[in-house]
Amino acid sequence: MLSTMQDVPLTVTRILVHGALVHGKSTVTTWTGDGEPHRQTFRETGVRAVQLAHALGDELGIGRGDRVATLMWNNAEHLEAYLAIPSMGAVLHTLNLRLPADQLTWIVNHAADRVILVNGTLLPLLAPLLPQLGTVEHLVVVGAGDSSVLDAVPTDRRPQVHAYEELIAGRPTTYDWPELDEREAAAMCYTSGTTGDPKGVVYSHRSVYLHSMQVAAAESMGLTSHDTSLPVVPMFHVNAWGIPHAAFMAGINLLMPDRFLQPGPLAEMIESERPTHAAAVPTIWQGLLAELTEKPRDITCLQQVTIGGSACPPSLMKAFDEQLGVRLCHAWGMTETSPLGTIAQPPAGVTPEEEWAYRITQGRFPASVEARLIGPDGSVMPWDGVSAGELEVRGPWIAAAYYGGAGEEPLRPEDKFSPDGWLRTGDVGVISEDGFLTLTDRAKDVIKSGGEWISSVDLEGHLMAHPDVVEAAVVAVPDARWGERPLATVVLREGATTDFAALREFLAGKVAKWQLPERWTLLEEVPKTSVGKFDKKVIRRRHADGELTVTTL
Amino acid sequence: MLSTMQDVPLTVTRILVHGALVHGKSTVTTWTGDGEPHRQTFRETGVRAVQLAHALGDELGIGRGDRVATLMWNNAEHLEAYLAIPSMGAVLHTLNLRLPADQLTWIVNHAADRVILVNGTLLPLLAPLLPQLGTVEHLVVVGAGDSSVLDAVPTDRRPQVHAYEELIAGRPTTYDWPELDEREAAAMCYTSGTTGDPKGVVYSHRSVYLHSMQVAAAESMGLTSHDTSLPVVPMFHVNAWGIPHAAFMAGINLLMPDRFLQPGPLAEMIESERPTHAAAVPTIWQGLLAELTEKPRDITCLQQVTIGGSACPPSLMKAFDEQLGVRLCHAWGMTETSPLGTIAQPPAGVTPEEEWAYRITQGRFPASVEARLIGPDGSVMPWDGVSAGELEVRGPWIAAAYYGGAGEEPLRPEDKFSPDGWLRTGDVGVISEDGFLTLTDRAKDVIKSGGEWISSVDLEGHLMAHPDVVEAAVVAVPDARWGERPLATVVLREGATTDFAALREFLAGKVAKWQLPERWTLLEEVPKTSVGKFDKKVIRRRHADGELTVTTL
C-alpha cells in the first residue's frame, strides 16, 4: 500500500534556498589575518551562490553532471561553491591541496573536471600541474594571489582564467533551479590509500541532505542558529565533516579560518569571534594546547569541540578538560561515510569515571548508520565490548562503490565492499552492549593467529608504557603453525639494558598469554610515513626480505 | 551523473532495530495511577514488538499492507504497536477515541482495518460499534478491562477476541523483517473536518523517518537520550507529534500518561518522574496551571514544553514563565503535515521583548518544509510580516492526497491541494522576513473585501479587549460592492450601555479604516461547536436566513 505523502526530493538546492531565506540573518565570517574579518549573511551568500551558478552555466557552459573542482581554503566563497554547484545539477569536486602533485593531477583527470575554482594563494601549487590537466577549460581565481605563476604554463595548455568577483558580478540574483533526482551526484571527494590509485566517493543530494540533518541533530553536534561553528577541518576533507551544509540547513553561523590554520591565529580568532563549536583533527588541538599553555587565552566560548580523523589521545582530552575548560568530543568516520559514523556523546546516568570511559571510545552510531563486526572466521560478532571484528557499515550516507571514471562502471573492490553491499571500513574494534564503538586496530595490521585476532595497537601501547621503550611497532609475520604471529620491533632509549625476555615478562600480565610475541627485533627507529605514522608496510617488507635480525624467545 | 552511495531505505524498521539495540537502556515508563508505574527498557520494548509482529503475522494472518488499528491511550503497548506494525509491512491505523461513534465506524470501515488493538478500559466505547465494523476479524485487548461488554455483540458480528499478553507470550524474539520500499505506507490517521467525510492521511516510512529526525533536531525539540519526554498529546493524534518514533530513533526516554490526563495526575507524574520535556495542547496546560496555582508543586524539571494544536494564549505562556519557571514553546502543524510544520525557537541576538514577540508566533519552518503564502488574488505574497495569504506547504512529510479507500484512487480535493501539488493548509497568516509564521485566521473565516483580506480573528481580538464586550465573532457576509464585508456580532456584559458606534470608534485606531465593520448584531451568546470554538458557520447561516437583526452604521 502506497502512502499519500508528497514525493519531494532531498536536495542541496533545498538547503541553499532554505538557509538563504529562513536563516538569512545567520552569518559566515572569514578570517583574513589582517584583523578585519570578512563578514556576510546567509542571505548574501545565497545571492552570490545564485550568481555563481549563472556564471558557471551561462558563461562557462557548465551543465548537468559536469564536474567543477575547488582548490580552496575554508572561506565564504568556498561555501558559495558548495551550494551553487550541486544546486545547478553539476558536481562539486573538492581537491585536497595537501596531496602530492602526481596524485592531484591523476584525480583531476580521472574526475574530468571542466572548471577549477582556486584560491589565489594556491595558484603556485596548481600552476605547475596545468599542462597535465587535459579536461580543465576554465580557472576561476578566488581572492588575491600572484597570477604571474600562470605565465609559465604553455599557452596551448593554459585554461581560460577568470577572476571570481568579476565573473559573478552583475549576474541575475534568482535562478530557476532544475528539478533534481535525490540520487544524482552532488559532490565528490577522492580518498588516497597507501596503495593503488586514489578512489572517488560520489555523494548524492540525498546523502548530503540526510547527513546534514544528522550533523545538526541534538544527539550529534547539536547545533542551532544560536551557535557559531569553526570548521578547522578543511572543506576539501569529506565536506568539512558536513558542517557547511548543516550550517545552511539549520542556520548555524560559521567562522571560516581560510589559510590561517596555525595555533596562533586559531587562538586569536577563537578569542575574538567566540565560536561555540569547532571541529578538527587531534594535531590541531595538540598545537592549540601548546599555544595556549605558552600564552593563555580564554577559549571557554567553545561549548563543544568535535575531534576526529584519527584517535584522540586521552591525555589531550584531559588537558582540554582541565587546563582549558573545553570538552573535546570524539567522532569517527571516513571519506566513504560522509563522514559521520559515530560520535561519543556519553549516555545519561553514568558516574564521572564511566563517562570518561565512554568519551574515549569512538562513540555511538546514529540510526542511519547500521553497523556489524565481522570476526576472524567471517561471522558476525556480538556487541559485548570484548569480541573484536572488522567494522562494516550500511546506510544512506555510506558509499556502495567508487567512481569508475566518465562512462565507466563504478568500482567495487572486494576488500572495501562486502558481497551484500556493506562498506568494509578496514577498522577493527569492539562494540559495547549499548552501541559504543572502540577501534583497536587497522584490519591490515591485525595479527590473525590461529583463528583469533591480536591487536598490534594494543601490544604497542603496552610496550611503549615500559620506561625503556621509546617506540614499538608490532606487525604480523607468517607462522607455519598459527598462520600469523606478532613480531615486536622496539626502539630502546639510549643506555637501556632491558632485554626482550624482560619486555615479554612486562607484557605478560597485560595481555592474554597466547598473544605474547615470541619474535623480537631491535630497531634504531621505526620507519614512518610522510605524515609521521608508523609505516608497518616497510617493516613487513624488510622482514620478508630477511633484512631484520629476529630473536625468538 | 549518479552517486556511488548505498541505496538504503528510510524505514520504521530501522528505527525499531536501532532503538532496541543502540538505545536499549532507554526506558518507557507508563503511568498506572496506583503509585507504581510500569517500566520497561527500549530493549524489552523491541523484543515485545518483535513478538507482536509474530503474533499478528503468524497467528492472525496479517500481511503486507494490511491495516491494523489501535484504540489506545499513550502507553508502552501502544509504542510496541507503533514499531511492530509498520516494520512488518502492515499499516498502523490510530483511532481517535474522542470521535463520535458514527465517525469512528465510518473510519474503520473505510480503512478496512482487519485487527483492532484496544485498551481494556476502552472496550465499552468500542463494543457498541462492532456490529457495524464489517472488516474487523480480530480484537486484541490490551491490559485490564471489563470484557463482558462484548457479550452484547451478536456472535456472528463479533470478531475473535485475544488478550495481548497471551497473544505475544512465548513468540520468537527475532524477526526477519521484510525489505520495504520507503514510500510504502507505514501509518494512517484520519482528520475530521466540519464538513464531509473524514479524510485519511497515509504516512510513508520515509515521511515518518525524516519527521523523526526533525523532531529530535537541536533546532526543533532538541531531545537526546539524556531527556525524558512526556507526550500528553495522544498517540492517536498525528502520531503524538512524532515523539514516539523520534524517541526510539534518538534514545529519548518516554513517560506515558496512559488515561491519566487530568491536571492532578499529570502534576503528580511530572513531580515524581521528572521529565525534561512534555507536549500537549493549550487546554492541558491551562488545566495544569490552575492545578498548580491551587496546589503548588515543582515542575521546573521541564526544560521545555511543546505546545500546539491551537494557538497558545500569550497569557498562558507568560504565566508558565513567571509562575512555574517553565518555558512553553509554540509549534504549528496538522494531520496533513505529520505534524511538524513550524516551531517557535526564537533567533539569537534579540532583546527579551523581541524574543517574546518571536515566541508568540507559530515559529519557523525546518528545511524540509517549504512554505508560501497565496494572497487574495492568487499570487505568492512576500515574506514581510505584513502581507497576508493562505499558507501552502510542500515537503517530504506533507500530504499530497487523502486515502481513497481500498483499491480506490487517492483523493485530491482542490480546496486542499493546489494544482502543483502543495498542501493548502486553510490557515491564513503572514511570514516575517526571517521566516517566522504568524497565523491570523482560518481561510474560510477571512473576509475577502475588494481584493483585500480582513482578519476576523484580528477584529474579534480588538473587540473583546473592550470592557463591555464579553464575546465577539466576526463573519463575512455578501456585499454588492466589495464582494464581502465583515459582520460584527457581539455579546455585551449585563448592564452595558455601549452602542455599536462606540465600538466602531473603539476599533478605529486599531485597524485600517477600510476594515471597520459597518454591520453589527447583538447576540445573547456566540454559538459554539462541540469543542467550544466559535461556530461561525452557524452565524453565517443565520444571517443568510435573515434570522439576525443587523444594524448598519
From TrEMBL, chains A, B:
GO terms for molecular function: ligase activity. Keywords: Ligase. The keyword Metal-binding does not apply. Pfam families: AMP-binding, AMP-binding_C. Residues 459-533 form the AMP-binding enzyme C-terminal domain. InterPro entries: AMP-bd_C (IPR025110), AMP-bd_C_sf (IPR045851), AMP-binding_CS (IPR020845), AMP-dep_synth/lig_dom (IPR000873), ANL_N_sf (IPR042099), ATP-dep_AMP-bd_enzyme (IPR050237). CDD domains: ttLC_FACS_AlkK_like (cd12119). This is Long-chain fatty acid--CoA ligase. It comes from Actinacidiphila acidipaludis.
